[in-house]
């Protein structure tokens, strides 16, 4: 039984990239995302959620209760129609059923069916309205610990698209990479919101598994070598928590080693998790 979680969690995820583009910016010609003022690299929360979704889809397939709502070539209105059909209801353009019980059942059906809805929430107010739900799991942007350098590479293509182009010069393309970057992301899990969506103990175990292994099945020429290096959990002994998240995050320090000029591996950093004098009701768990 996937009983909803009863503990609040705050967590720190450390992952790195070598000779790859962890998250291209479409507004900047697909250059790696950067903080223009500090030079630190950025990876959006949406990017990490996409990798979690992909991992769960790969692992669970079409297993009942673990379908993915936001996926490639998914038609959201069709996803919503499934809920209406399952509950024997007729949809009305852009409107929820006037009966609050039926409207609530629609949202509950969507949460029970789709892992990413009961995890991250969703706004499902399209032409076929299935309501909206706030998810218990949220991520921040990931930010590199040190400044990163965005390298640009010229690449050529030997083949041509059509015969008329056979005598033309080879096509030149551009590729952008970060030689090395260690990124830090913070995350939050709300037990009260988990109760509303049905996010349970089996789901949170799957979330941790996904965060640890999501890069193993995302290999590509653009990604380079990406890997989760550490996942540090702060588990509270109750649903509302026992300490502010910022105080707990401050206990995790990640610093470039003094004898390293240009970091090129995880070993070039020192990671310390301070476990002394923890606030009452908080436990630290290191999953890697």
Give the C-alpha Rg: 22 Å
Roughly what is the average pLDDT, rounded to an integer? 94
Largest sheet: 8 strands, antiparallel
Terminal residue distance: 27 Å
Q: How many beta-strand runs?
A: 14
Overall number of domains: 1
List the helices and strands in order: EEEEHHHHEEEEEEHHEHEEE
Query: pLDDT below 50 for ≥5 consecutive residues: which ranges?
Result: none
Fraction of helical residues: 25-40%
Q: Structural class, please? A: alpha+beta
What oligomeric state do the depicted chains represent?
Answer: single chain
Summed up, the helix count is 7
User: Which percent band covers the strand fraction?
Assistant: 25-35%
| Bulk shape | flat
Q: What's the SSE blueprint?
A:
Elements (H helix, E strand, L loop, with lengths): L8 E12 L3 E2 L5 E2 L7 E4 L1 H16 L15 H11 L13 H14 L1 H6 E5 L3 E6 L2 E3 L2 E6 L3 E7 L13 E19 L1 H7 L3 H13 L11 E12 L8 H5 L2 E5 L12 E5 L8 E5 L2
Antiparallel strand pairs: 1-10, 1-11, 2-3, 4-8, 5-6, 7-10, 8-10, 9-10, 11-14, 12-13
Helix pairs in contact: 1-6, 2-3
Polypeptide structure, described:
This protein is α+β, with helices and mostly antiparallel strands and 288 residues long. It has one domain (9-152, 175-286). It is built from seven helices and 14 strands. The strands form four sheets. Strands 1, 4, 7, 8, 9, 10, 11 and 14 form an eight-stranded antiparallel sheet that branches. A two-stranded antiparallel sheet has the order 2-3. A two-stranded antiparallel ribbon has the order 5-6. A hairpin with a 3-residue loop joins strand 5 and strand 6. The longest helix is centred in the first third of the chain and has 16 residues, at 45-60. The protein is flat and about 65 Å long. It starts with 8 loop residues before the first strand and ends with a strand. The model has no long low-confidence stretch (mean pLDDT 94).
């Amino acid at each position: 039984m996937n009983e909803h979680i009863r503990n609040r969690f705050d967590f720190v995820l450390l992952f790195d990239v070598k000779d790859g583009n962890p998250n291209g910016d479409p507004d900047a010609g697909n250059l790696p995302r950067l903080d223009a003022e500090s030079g630190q690299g950025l990876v959006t929360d949406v990017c990490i959620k996409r990798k979690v979704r992909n991992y769960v889809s790969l692992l669970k397939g079409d297993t009942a209760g673990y379908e993915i709502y936001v996926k490639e070539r998914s038609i959201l209105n069709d996803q919503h129609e499934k809920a209406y059909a399952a509950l024997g209801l007729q949809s009305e353009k852009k409107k929820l059923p006037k009966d609050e019980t039926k409207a609530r059942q629609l949202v509950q059906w969507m949460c029970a069916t789709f892992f990413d809805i009961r995890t991250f929430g969703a706004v499902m107010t399209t032409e076929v309205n299935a309501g909206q739900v706030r998810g218990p799991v949220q991520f921040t942007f990931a930010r590199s610990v040190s400044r990163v350098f965005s390298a640009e590479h010229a690449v050529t293509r030997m083949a041509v698209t059509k015969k008329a182009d056979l005598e033309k010069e080879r096509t030149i393309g551009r590729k952008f990479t970060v030689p090395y970057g260690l990124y830090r992301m913070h995350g939050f899990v709300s037990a009260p919101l988990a109760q509303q969506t049905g996010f349970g103990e089996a789901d949170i175990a799957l979330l941790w598994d996904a965060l640890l292994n999501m890069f193993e099945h995302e290999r590509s020429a653009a990604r380079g070598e990406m890997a989760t290096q550490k996942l540090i959990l702060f588990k509270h002994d109750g649903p509302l928590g026992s300490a502010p998240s910022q105080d707990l995050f401050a206990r995790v320090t990640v610093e470039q080693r003094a004898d390293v000029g240009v970091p090129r591996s995880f070993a070039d950093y020192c990671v310390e998790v301070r476990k002394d004098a923890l606030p009452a009701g908080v436990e630290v768990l290191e999953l890697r």
